[in-house]
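F.,

This is the one I mentioned.
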């Protein structure tokens, strides 16, 4: 990949979109992870106001510190970068108190994790509405179109997706050229939605390198009987997640009324 030219292409794409939409800047949620770091750096390079927002909810200290380190790194380089920190922990706790105890707790943990993501989306759109900013998505190709590893109307609720055609491995190439802090590049990917140390790989059951491999095998039609047991397992994980999360990747179903019923 011609990394520097890809960076230039995305930056020009962002600028062109914002100009045509007659918007004044971008707002990005900063998690302390590589995807939000790269996305915010790309937005900053446009020259448009770039608002970086930290939104901790019972967040691990190292995630918060990495986010702050990255924001300071951007502000040292780009005068157009601004930041806000909105601690949503008390909002999240109040939200939980307002709901009755479910009869079945099977899906409670996941539901609350998705609630965190949706509270953050609401916060980003608050700032976007105040200042005429675009909410920039931070999902990569494997997450957004492979295994659907994002929250519907949470981190999936954005105005535009500048990195959604890039694999996770390609994100690291961009990060190195953009001089993203080493602490972020070296950190294990995590969505930080559960208030513990679980990584994306812990949740999915496969690494991003493995998922990229599976995505490419399926796209190229290269499945074979010569695969190792681990490769077969990874393909199964990928297919199951893609199938289960397909509803996140396609347009909302619309019930179209037949013309004969309108007469």
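My design for it:
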């Amino acid at each position: 990949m011609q990394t520097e030219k890809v960076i230039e292409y995305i930056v020009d794409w962002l600028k062109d979109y914002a100009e045509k939409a007659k918007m004044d800047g971008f707002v990005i949620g900063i998690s302390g992870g590589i995807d939000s770091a790269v996305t915010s750096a790309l937005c900053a390079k446009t020259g448009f106001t770039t608002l970086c927002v930290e939104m901790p909810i019972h967040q691990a200290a190292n995630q918060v510190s990495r986010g702050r380190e990255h924001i300071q790194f951007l502000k040292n380089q780009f005068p157009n970068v601004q930041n806000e920190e909105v601690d949503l922990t008390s909002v999240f706790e109040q939200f939980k108190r307002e709901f009755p105890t479910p009869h079945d707790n099977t899906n409670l943990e996941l539901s609350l994790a998705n609630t965190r993501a949706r509270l953050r989306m609401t916060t980003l759109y608050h700032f976007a509405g105040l200042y005429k900013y675009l909410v920039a998505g931070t999902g990569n190709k494997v997450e957004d179109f492979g295994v659907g590893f994002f929250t519907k109307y949470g981190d999936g609720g954005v105005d535009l997706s500048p990195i959604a055609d890039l694999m996770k491995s390609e994100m690291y190439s961009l990060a190195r050229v953009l001089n993203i802090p080493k602490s972020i590049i070296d950190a294990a990917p995590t969505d930080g939605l559960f208030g513990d140390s679980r990584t994306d790989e812990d949740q999915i059951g496969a690494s991003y390198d493995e998922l990229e491999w599976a995505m490419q095998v399926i796209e190229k039609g290269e499945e074979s009987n010569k695969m190792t047991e681990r490769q077969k397992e990874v393909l199964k994980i990928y297919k199951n997640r893609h199938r289960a999360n397909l509803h996140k990747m396609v347009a909302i179903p619309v019930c179209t009324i037949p013309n004969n019923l309108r007469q």
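DSSP finds twelve helices and four strands in the chain.

Talk soon.
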